[in-house]
Amino acid sequence: MWRESGAETLDEYAVWAANICGMACLKMxxxxxxxxxxxxxxxxxxxxxxxxxxxxxxxxxxIYAPFVSFVKEVFGLRAEVVTNVATGEIPAxxxxxxxxxxxxxxxxxxxxxxxxxxxxxLVLVTAAxxxxxxxHNPSGHDPATQADAVLAPADFDRFFANRGIAVAI
Length: 169
What we know:
alpha+beta
């Protein structure tokens, strides 16, 4: 299904695939308001704003500040970079925004395991309370870990790198 990503070739898709979680989160946000934009098209456009640095077959990013500029200018989204945020603060952030793109360990798809580190992957938090965090994980390995996954705040905290992007539509 690489063609649906917006990639021109399978090789282009392979280069982007490991770096596209932020654009998958953006795609979900845009889809919530009826806009469907291919993921790699979003990545290419975000790169023009400095959200990714592409050097041959190497990609650095998602770089948060340029991403915020990109989504404000291109899609009219209100977004802000949030750093040094405790897991317990996310519910309050989401009371004033609709979404939170959270930096987590990619091993969040296996919540029963201890993560080797925090951060390096992005998930889209769609609801947060003292009882649980609901999120979509672009790299979930089965339906239960891809859409509407739920973790208790203490479990989410084990994976969360205390930074992300708050987004209001």
